[in-house]
Amino acid sequence: MSSTNQVAENMITAEALIREAVGLGAEMVITPEMTTLIELDRAALLGKIYHQEDDPSLPVFKALAKELKIWLVIGSMAIKLDDKMANRCFVLSPEGNIAAFYDKIHMFDVDLAGGEQYRESRNYEAGNRAVIAKTPWGNMGLSICYDVRFPHLYRKLAQAGAVMVTVPAAFTKVTGEAHWHILLRARAIENGAFIFAPAQTGSHKSATGESRKTFGHSLLVDPWGNIIDDAGTDIGVIVSEIDLTASQKARSSVPSLKHDRKIELD
Length: 266
Hints:
Number of domains: 1
Number of strands: 14
CATH superfamily: Carbon-nitrogen hydrolase
CATH class: Alpha Beta
Helix content: 25-40%
Structural class: alpha+beta
Shape: globular
Strand order of the largest sheet: 7-8-9-10-13-14
């Protein structure tokens, strides 16, 4: 997706892409980080989001999952809290229920070359729990974007039984070009897990005219680190049938998940 700062516009796009994926045979559909809204201006963002119980987008996605009889993972939405916001992922069952949700743990606070600055912690409350969603195919760990730089989270998910991990993202173009593919492949290899990483792409403008670019390249990565598919920088859908026994095969070949040792640093 290339989400804008208009929720209604993004909902139309998201629904069309979800239906397209299902038309291609998808039984699970995963969308990028900030599916419903990318707004860089804090005041404008706060004026466009809701507490979870009042959010008008969530019932639409629930109804869509139920209608299409799919598992639908909304990569993330901005959800209003008392003081800040949550960057929250929702896993919706074919019955239209919330099967699991996860709040992004790691906040992207950085100054980039060229003057670009990100301060997620100004607006967002960091999550404090790792989450595994139970699906008919196996356990799926949840993460969001910047989380991918913290391998201990993925280790914890894998050692708790996750054979798949989602990494919905809005990776910047600069850091994406440098690290996106290699980080996702590394997390797959380290943990013998499938990585599903739907991503934002293109240029996103705020209410004040500020613009940021995201890298795109939604990826499906197998447990051996092979890229199954790469969506490039176009808006659209990639679909693949996967064999989850590949996770067990990878973990049997390199059983590193069983070999962690406590190390003391002098």
